[in-house]
TrEMBL record:
EC number per UniProt: 3.6.1.5
Gene name for this UniProt entry: entpd1
Transmembrane segments: 120-141, 565-586
Active site: 277 (proton acceptor)
Name of the protein this chain belongs to: Ectonucleoside triphosphate diphosphohydrolase 1
UniProt entry keywords in alphabetical sequence: ATP-binding, Calcium, Disulfide bond, Glycoprotein, Hydrolase, Magnesium, Membrane, Nucleotide-binding, Transmembrane, Transmembrane helix
Length: 600
């Protein structure tokens, strides 16, 4: 019997079922019944309105029905399930309510005439489906991210005021290009910086023990031996080395001996040059900001330590030809950078305070009035302690008493004048200078200011650089003039040494930035005071480790054009489209349904 279209209730073995979408309407439906080739009923349907199901939904439902009906008996699904499945697909694409009646037709006569009945067609269909499923499965499995394994690196920052340990972590399979290195943990070593142990070097090594034990806990045991451990010392050790190189060597020996007892891969301890310290701070800031990888405009780095301060930035006006000693060139991720960097030894905040106080105590009197300390502040200090640093030792007043009484008067303007006295603005043999005859190109771009810049400005509530510079100075003026008793009452938990020095430190920072580096009222707002970037401390240590482990490639790494999810999605969509195409390509083999549907 040819394809049959039944009008009204079928007089054959008919099975009627109504399936409705959300807002079911009672419509007369046209049921198109197609003959089967596998001996089981073949189903199709159409709505009374041609627009009820869109072309895609019709195609899907028809394809699905054909596919299901072509399955061999053993795999055949119940007619109602088959229809549900095909309807589900079509309903997904149909916005109109649909009412369908299901008619089962046993039409065995068609079996012989319809090519769908041949085993070859069935086999081709099954193989096609298996191939598509296999393709999607392979794509998913092949690109499935493996369980993440990490590698670690440890850097000890042996600063002038203290030592800090940083543990970095990055995905094991990406250590040479795309993986992001992040700070996993940091540990502040108790006690002063290692340069303070010149007279008892062994203690310098011992002081590191607690943080190193912590590192053993943070780095998984099986990674200990492959974890590089570096120690970099900065301006404190630079000064000790200048003053007493054998004492500095002994401190290093003690420190090395202590570090080698730990199971990490010890890579040595060394004193960083000021240029390295500035350049690696700049690398850290721009690496964490992802400006290097993306080739974006870089951010200058302003680092204020205890014994030195660094300024590093890229300027269009600087190609390294003027004052080449300030130039550091990098090729990172396929981009060339010509960095200007300078480290001012003795201009860290602790040494700058010494220099300022040395200026104020030149007369060698028993009393020193200090405008940078709060009114009501008074303390007895030792001349030999104040002048015990290569930054001031040659200025020690002769015939001064052992001690002096340090008395605060809290006057911002006088403090600013005293601070200015430590800068020399008189000589400059270059086209332009910052201070002390040091070349500095025109300032350019945004800046990140960290370490003591952040500690101080954060405490003083002055990190918002959109506030006009004049207002910032006015606030600081009021703060400096506040009585010391009031200050101590307002900040009971703050270390007294830090608390006493914030007026000086704030004044020094503003003077260094505006008078020293030539930031103006406008360019001051380009500075951002930062402590951390995306959870990692801003400082030289990360840049130092990235450099020593060659973790920033000179050339941009090849990255897959698509992320994993995008890749799998595209493969899946293409596979489904291929499947539909395959079904459509078998159109000549489709059983023909009557072209004249009739109302049931
Ligand atoms: N206010 C404040 N000052 C700090 C803190 N930690 C360190 N400092 C001071 O900030 C300055 C710079 O510290 P740091 O960056 O560790 O410099 P470094 O010791 O020279 O490497 C030093 O004068 C420290 O005494 C802190 O948590 N709060």
């Amino acid at each position: 019997m040819p394809n049959s279209v039944l009008k009204g209730r079928s007089t054959r073995k008919t099975h009627t079922q109504t399936q409705t979408h959300k807002h079911t309407h009672k419509h007369d439906s046209i049921i198109t019944v197609c003959p089967v080739m596998t001996g089981k009923p073949l189903l199709s349907f159409s709505h009374h309105s041609a627009t009820s199901l869109g072309p895609l939904s019709r195609l899907l439902s028809t394809s699905t029905l054909f596919f299901l009906s072509s399955l061999p008996h053993s795999l055949s699904l119940s007619p109602s399930f088959s229809l549900s499945l095909s309807l589900s697909l079509s309903l997904c694409f149909s916005r109109s309510p649909v009412s369908v009646k299901f008619i089962e037709v046993d039409n065995r006569e068609m079996k012989e005439k319809n090519p769908w009945q041949t085993p070859v067609t069935i086999i081709i269909t099954v193989i096609g489906v298996i191939a598509i499923v296999a393709l999607v499965t392979v794509a998913v499995l092949q690109n499935k991210p493996l369980p993440q394994k990490y590698k670690y690196g440890i850097v000890l920052d042996a600063g002038s005021s203290h030592t800090a340990l940083y543990i970095y972590e990055w995905p094991a399979e990406k250590d040479n290009n795309t993986g992001r290195v992040e700070q996993k943990h940091s540990c502040k070593v108790k006690g002063p910086g290692i340069s303070s142990y010149a007279s008892a070097p062994v203690k310098a090594g011992e002081s590191l023990r607690v943080c190193m034990e912590e590192a053993k806990q943070w780095v998984p045991g099986k990674r200990h031996h492959q974890t590089p451990l570096y120690l970099g010392a900065t301006a404190g050790m630079r000064l000790l080395n200048m003053e007493n190189s054998s004492a500095s060597d002994k401190v290093f020996q003690a420190v090395e001996g202590a570090l080698q007892k730990f199971p990490f891969s010890y890579q040595g301890a060394r004193i960083l040059s000021g240029q390295d310290e500035g350049a690696f701070g700049w690398v850290t800031v721009n690496y964490l900001d992802e400006r290097l990888k993306q080739g974006l405009e870089t951010r200058g780095a302003l680092d204020l330590g205890g014994a030195s301060t660094q300024i590093s930035f890229v300027s269009d006006n600087y190609d390294g030809s003027e004052s080449p000693s300030n130039s550091v060139t990098f090729r990172l991720y396929g981009n060339d950078y010509n960095l200007y960097t300078h480290s001012f030894l003795c201009y860290g905040k602790d040494q700058a305070l010494r220099m300022t106080q040395a200026h104020q105590s030149q007369a060698g009197l028993a009393t020193v009035l200090d405008p940078c300390f709060h009114p009501g502040y008074t303390a007895t200090k030792n001349y030999s302690v104040l002048y015990d640093s290569p930054c001031v030792s040659d200025r020690k007043p002769k015939g001064a008493p052992d001690t002096f009484t340090h008395i605060g008067i809290g006057d911002f303007l006088q403090c600013q004048a005293a601070v200015k006295s430590v800068f020399n603005f008189t000589s400059c043999k270059y086209s332009r200078c910052s201070f002390n005859g040091v070349f500095q190109p025109l300032l350019q771009g945004p800046y990140g200011a960290f370490s003591a810049y952040y500690f101080v400005m954060n405490f003083l509530n002055l990190t918002d650089t959109s506030v006009p510079l004049e207002d910032v100075k006015e606030k600081l003026k009021r703060y400096c003039a506040t009585n010391w008793d009031q200050i101590t009452q307002q900040h009971p938990g703050v270390k007294l040494k830090y608390l006493a020095e914030y007026c000086f430190s704030g004044t020094y920072i503003l003077t260094l930035l505006t008078e020293g580096y030539n930031f103006t009222s406008e360019s001051y707002s380009d500075i951002k005071f930062i402590e951390k970037i995306k959870g990692s401390d801003a400082g030289w240590t990360l840049g130092y480790m990235l450099n020593l482990t060659n973790m920033i490639p000179a050339e941009a790494p090849d990255t897959p054009p698509l992320p994993h999810v995008g890749y799998v999605s595209i493969v899946s969509v293409i596979a489904v489209l291929l499947f539909i195409l395959f079904i459509v390509s078998l159109r000549p083999l489709w059983p023909r349904c009557s072209k004249q549907p009739q109302i049931v």
